[in-house]
Write a structure and sequence with these properties.
mainly alpha; 4 helices
Length: 120
């Protein structure tokens, strides 16, 4: 069975954004694991931000890959979740995993913000 023109190719910008979302999702999941091992009450706010960001980035990537008409709106929401997560991670500047996560979140936020202004 052949696919003949039923799927348009994804733009480089959209593919880069999907990749940034998936990288951010992975790093947030890894950081959650690191937080759970450390424990502590202050970690709960960071955990919420990590969970929100991990879910939003995965969903955002999925919606872009299936060319959802709502993907631009999702990209805008995803950028907000990434910004909040980066800010939460920055509250622990001595933790290299947190800094790695903040960097992935910032990159994803920038790319999602750009995609939210683009036509799908």
């Amino acid at each position: 069975m052949q696919e003949t023109g039923t799927m348009t190719t994804m733009s480089k910008e959209m593919q880069d954004c999907v990749n940034a979302c998936m990288t951010c999702h992975t790093v947030c999941e890894e950081t959650m694991s690191s937080c759970m091992q450390a424990g502590g009450q202050a970690q709960m706010q960071i955990m919420r931000a990590l969970m929100d960001c991990a879910e939003m980035t995965r969903m955002c990537a999925d919606m872009m890959m299936r060319r959802s008409p709502m993907s631009a709106e999702m990209c805008a929401m995803c950028a907000r979740a990434c910004d909040m997560c980066a800010e939460a991670c920055m509250s622990m500047p001595d933790d290299p995993q947190m800094m790695r996560c903040a960097e992935a979140c910032r990159r994803c936020s920038e790319m999602c913000r750009a995609m939210s202004g683009a036509t799908a």
